[in-house]
């Protein structure tokens, strides 16, 4: 009996040890190649580049464009990104894209391995442009191109002959929301380059401080002063209070100066927005600011920012399916659904905030209490993973909404450069209106815009893959930027990085 008993004990010990070893492995077998999706999500930004392209350009069907941008105002505004499938450079979404790429790197850059350099290059392509756009004190150039005239053409960026109208904000025509977002972009990027390029980092931070002062001192909505140019494309509907809080939060993080903490404490109430504001994107920064500021309380123990943990919890609770305070709708296939127009931007931004807040909660050994229902960091990560997995192909159509990922993905995206023959294939100029015959055709796009994430399916999981349907078929930089962080986390947690 004794021998048998010791054998059983021995067996039990081995089983326990094996279970413990398994528990500490990174994770289960991944359903997706998150590393491949991460590589592609960053590569997409190279397809959106404006200006003179570098020798290491990976999306090779794109060529130089917009080389005289800014000339109309005798300033150099060459570079930056086209926001989506058109040929306009809109400063407001470009700055938000930059902030979210920077936040992705700051939270998950340590996990990115070989992709970190590419992510930093994507940020720098934007910040080099934003430095040009903010070179003059109390002036920010916020748009290059006439959106109405640009949208009347379907032409490659390399061919564009529409007016490259330059728009600016200044003391007389303020634009607090775009100025404060630009400050956030420069401040967050300064943290990205702090160790690798101190001189550049200092330049970005110095400029961020100046731009934020301008944003705060000369208050006014750019959607008012420049309404006929920026609306309905990138009108701000959430006001500029969210950007002031967001900009101050990033400057506090970048400077550690009590000045910005005092600003947040003094103005936080008036800039805070609605308690149940649960949309985060290029226009509305309330949820992002709350999550960012909650870190200062949770991890850095700044007691004066205690309320932001509660605000962040409210946002998280609004996303949890079945939770007492849930306000979010999901498609039958399980996709978070906010609105018809480019819904995937809210999916990627919410996924990023879920994995980021889960990280902060884990560091602080805290959970979220949704009306008595306890939500753990693990649950937040699980919800984020489900959203990313849907995007990558776990959906009723079995379609990846990232171009070039998987075997089935959108082939007719609403994107001029992707849909028209490349310069290499068709060196002759394609005139303004000549491209519309292709735009309205069923022909698949000849140029694969690798990594582009489109607007996505409707509330019933339907996706027609029609080029003319810009609500569902158009990619945008601000869809991809938060996804970079979420994919970095997932690739690492499944042992792919």
TrEMBL record:
From what superkingdom does this record's organism come?
Eukaryota
Q: What name does this protein carry?
A: Endoglucanase
Gene name on record?
Answer: AtGH9B13
**Which organism was this protein described from?**
Helianthus annuus
Q: What region holds the Glycoside hydrolase family domain? A: 34-487
Give one GO biological process term: cellulose catabolic process
Concerning Pfam families, the annotation shows:
Glyco_hydro_9
Q: Which GO terms describe its molecular function?
A: cellulase activity
Taxonomic lineage is: Eukaryota, Viridiplantae, Streptophyta, Embryophyta, Tracheophyta
Q: What keywords tag this UniProt record?
A: Carbohydrate metabolism, Cellulose degradation, Glycosidase, Hydrolase, Polysaccharide degradation, Signal
């Amino acid at each position: 009996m004794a021998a048998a008993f010791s054998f059983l004990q021995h067996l039990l010990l081995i089983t326990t040890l094996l279970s413990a070893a398994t528990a500490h492995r990174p994770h289960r077998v991944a359903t997706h190649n998150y590393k491949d999706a991460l590589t592609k999500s960053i590569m997409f930004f190279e397809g959106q580049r404006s200006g003179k392209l570098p020798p290491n350009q990976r999306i090779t069907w794109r060529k130089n464009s917009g080389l005289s941008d800014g000339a109309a105002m005798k300033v150099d505004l060459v570079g930056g990104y086209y926001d989506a499938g058109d040929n306009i450079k809109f400063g407001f979404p470009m700055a938000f894209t930059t902030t979210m790429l920077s936040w992705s790197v700051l939270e998950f850059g340590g996990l990115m391995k070989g992709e970190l350099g590419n992510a930093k290059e994507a940020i720098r392509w934007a910040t080099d442009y934003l430095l040009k756009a903010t070179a003059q004190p109390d002036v920010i150039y916020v748009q290059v191109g006439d959106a109405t005239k640009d949208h009347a053409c379907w032409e490659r960026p390399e061919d564009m002959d529409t007016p490259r109208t330059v728009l600016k904000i200044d003391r007389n025509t303020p634009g607090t929301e775009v100025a404060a977002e630009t400050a956030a972009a420069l401040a967050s990027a300064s943290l990205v380059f702090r160790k690798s390029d101190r001189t550049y980092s200092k330049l970005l931070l110095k400029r961020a401080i100046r731009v934020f002062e301008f944003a705060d001192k000369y208050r006014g909505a750019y959607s008012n002063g420049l309404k006929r140019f920026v609306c309905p494309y990138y009108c701000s509907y959430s006001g500029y209070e969210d950007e002031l809080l967001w900009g101050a939060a990033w400057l506090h993080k970048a400077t550690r100066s009590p000045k910005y903490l005092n600003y947040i404490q003094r103005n936080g109430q008036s800039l805070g927005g609605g308690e149940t504001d649960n949309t985060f994107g290029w226009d509305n920064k309330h949820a992002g600011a709350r999550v960012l500021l909650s870190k200062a309380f949770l991890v850095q123990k700044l007691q004066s920012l205690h309320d932001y943990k509660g605000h962040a919890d409210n946002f998280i609770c609004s996303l949890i399916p079945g939770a007492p305070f849930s306000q979010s709708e999901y498609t039958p296939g399980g996709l978070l659904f906010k609105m018809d127009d480019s819904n995937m931007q809210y999916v990627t931004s919410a996924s990023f905030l879920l994995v980021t807040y889960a990280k902060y909660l884990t560091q602080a050994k805290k959970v979220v209490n949704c009306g008595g229902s306890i939500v753990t960091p693990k649950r937040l990560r699980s919800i984020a993973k489900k959203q990313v997995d849907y995007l990558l192909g776990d959906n009723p159509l079995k379609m990846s909404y990232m171009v070039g990922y998987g075997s089935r993905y959108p082939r007719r995206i609403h994107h001029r450069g992707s849909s028209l023959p490349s310069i290499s294939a068709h060196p002759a100029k394609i005139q303004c209106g000549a491209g519309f015959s292709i735009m309205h055709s069923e022909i698949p796009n000849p140029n694969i815009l690798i990594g582009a994430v489109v607007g996505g399916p409707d509330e019933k999981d339907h996706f027609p893959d029609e080029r003319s349907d810009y609500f569902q078929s158009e990619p945008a930089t601000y869809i991809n930027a938060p996804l970079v962080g979420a994919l970095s986390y997932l690739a690492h947690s499944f042992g792919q990085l």
